[in-house]
Amino acid sequence: MTTFDEVLEQTLGEIDFDPDALKARYLAERDKRLRPDGNSQYVEVAGDFSSYVDDPYADPIERDALTDHTDIVIIGGGFGGLLMGGRLREAGFDDIRVIEKGGDFGGTWYWNRYPGAMCDVESYCYLPMLEELDYIPKHKYSYAPEIMEHSRNIAQHYGLYDNALMSTEVTAMRWDDGAGIWHIDTNRGDHVTARAVITAAGPLSRPKLPGIAGIDDYQGHTFHTSRWDYDYTGGDNAGGLTGLENKRVGIIGTGATAVQCVPHLGASAQELFVFQRTPSSIDVRNNRETPEDFADSLEPGWQYARMENFNRMVIGAKTDVDLVNDGWTDIFRNLTGIAAKRASEQLGRRLTGKEKGRLMEMADYRKMETIRRRADEVIEDPDIAERIKPWYRQFCKRPCFHDDYLPTFNRPNVHLVDTEGKGIDRFTETGLVANGQHYELDCIIFATGFEVGTSYTRRAGYDVAGRDGVLLSDKWADGLRTLHGMQTAGFPNSFHMGFTQGAVTVNVPQTLNEQAVHISHILATTRDSEATVVEVTPEAEQEWVDEMIDKARLGERFRAECTPGYYNNEGKSGNGNGFFAANYGAGPVKFFQILEDWRDDGSLSGCELRSAPPDDEAKASTT
Rounded to whole angstroms, how far apart are CA atoms 54 and 101? Predict the structure, then answer.
């Protein structure tokens, strides 16, 4: 009779490592990085640090302050806002306004223009609305300039530049229950109103800085990677940073952004010091140009089918073919239900929950062993190779895929400064101190990411007052309360896009598209019912909160054992914050089906409709 241990070896191959010793190493690496201050270790980009969120790419267009009325306002011009605007246009809504902090559409691809910036999900899945615009990306993984151009093209295709307010930040929102409208104030002096407001600001939009002693003492040049200073470095997305030829450059952070820009910094700077607290896992990227005949075999609906195939692959759902066939699907083939199905067939019975967990754990260990061996194979210095190895399980941090990051450490001008999980000691006027050693630096680049575990209203930069003046920050103080993550009781005609009690997908634009389709359906059904206000009931909201609790992933233990990062709220995932805190536990396939079934029902179940004064009275209330 075949045993589970035999099946485990048949499924995964020979286990050439000690699982118990590996787990102990993982926990030890986590423990040395745990900090009592959690997210408080980061400095809010405000006050003396507000320049780090300024827009270096565009000067605000001079215009008079507005006092007018629009049917629908979308806050945010990234992929969420673009998809939302496009789906609303397709549903017959003409009176739309986008309010965007940046000087153009693009969202994260407007801000993140650092050298080497590119998507790490296949572009044929990642770039929205390829079929609608009849466009095929140039590479399997698109570079930032092409993604930015595609964003502009979506905005032009759907007429979203019309009536848009660029270089404009919302500063306050207030619901007027009598008039059935939202009052919106901006930093440009605007006071505008709208029947409905959709917030699409994105989950990773507000830069953060490390709260290191003396950070304001440093007299050299600094900038955040999401506000790259090409006036200082020279070059562009393709590299050629000639301004760094005689500069000693330090970069703080070794996450996905640093992985992409470090090769260009190493190729240009006189000396580059990479300050590492926790290394990323670096797998093969193998980017390539799109074959000339790629489009020949595509049929209508191809992009959604490809996105859905990718989504099913990366959650382990039953899938006959892997259309994407890349590093992501390779990871999940081994870590999800596909491997379990193979093992179950060999065993002749269904696996127990404990056996599934053991299989996934061992597959995870083995995959990370291959990542660590790659460092040994690529990096010439054994000491550097050892220090750059990640000692944690897959998805404790976002996996990275790159073919030039590891070889950069073979350059004689590139130095890895591994802080053994402690981070930087302090800044000085001329550089910084790490591991007790002072480093003289002409320029320090912060590749320290974005706020995730902080409050929703802090990341947005303003609070929202619903019915009776209740603030959204107060309502959500003890946790998110929504229906399907997009509506919350007491805040009529207000919708949220992103990861508020919804589904987290590897391919984020797919989630945003599903939300855009869903919200446009709600607004169109409300319009067709000759109502003007739609609001979720407290009872429906509570049902969804209960569903979220019931389907909560058994992932808290997994994330608690992870090295700190934004995935687990810097090691404090149990407090309800963090990237996955509001993740629907049954997964995105189930979540998208729930939304589709809800729409097919046609009744807007759990929502109440009513009529407010006509638009001419709403417009009059603007002043």
Answer: 10
| Closest to 427 (Cα-Cα) out of 209, 214, 208 | 214
Q: How far apart are CA 497 and CA 35, in angstroms?
A: 31
DSSP character at residue 415? E
Which of 434, 478, 346 lies closest to 2, judged by CA? Answer: 346
Give the residue, 159 or 32, on which the prediction is more confident. 159
Q: Which helix (H) or strand (E) holds 22?
A: helix 19-33
Q: Which helix (H) or strand (E) holds 33?
A: helix 19-33
What is the number of other CB atoms lying within 10 angstroms of the CB of residue 134?
Answer: 9
Q: What is the DSSP letter of 566?
A: G
Please count the other Cβ atoms lying within 10 Å of the Cβ belonging to residue 530. 8
Q: What are phi and psi for residue 246, nearest 5 degrees?
A: -115, 30
- The Cα 461–Cα 331 span in angstroms is 37
Task: Pull the structure tokens for residue 462.
Answer: 């303003």
pLDDT band at 616 (very low <50, low <70, confident <90, very high): low
The residue with tokens 């301004």 is 243
What are the residues whose beta carbons fall under 8 Å from the beta carbon of 531, sequence distance 6 or more? 609, 610, 611
* Phi, psi for residue 465 in degrees, rounded to 5: -100, 115
**Where is pLDDT greater, at 344 or 618?**
344
| 196-234 pLDDT, tens digit each | 999 998 765 567 677 788 888 999 999 999 999 999 999
Sign of the Cα torsion 312, 313, 319, 324 reads positive
Task: At 559, list the tokens.
Answer: 């994330």
Q: What distance in Å separates the CA atoms of residue 316 and residue 382, rounded to the nearest whole number?
A: 36
Q: Token pair 């389907």 is at which residue?
A: 551
Tell me if residue 464 falls in helix, strand or coil. strand
Q: What is the per-residue pLDDT across 440-452, written as a single tens digit (0 to 9) for each?
A: 999 999 998 765 5
CA distances from 281 to 66, 132, 327, 406, 436 (A): 49, 35, 12, 10, 27
In DSSP notation, 168-231 reads --EEEEEEETTTTEEEEEETTS-EEEEEEEEE---SS-SB-EE--TTTTT--SEEEEGGG--HH
For the sheet with 426-427, list strands across it: 426-427, 431-434, 437-440
Tokens of 540: 């429906």
Q: How far apart are CA 252 and CA 274, in angstroms?
A: 6
Enter the tokens of residue 436: 């007790």
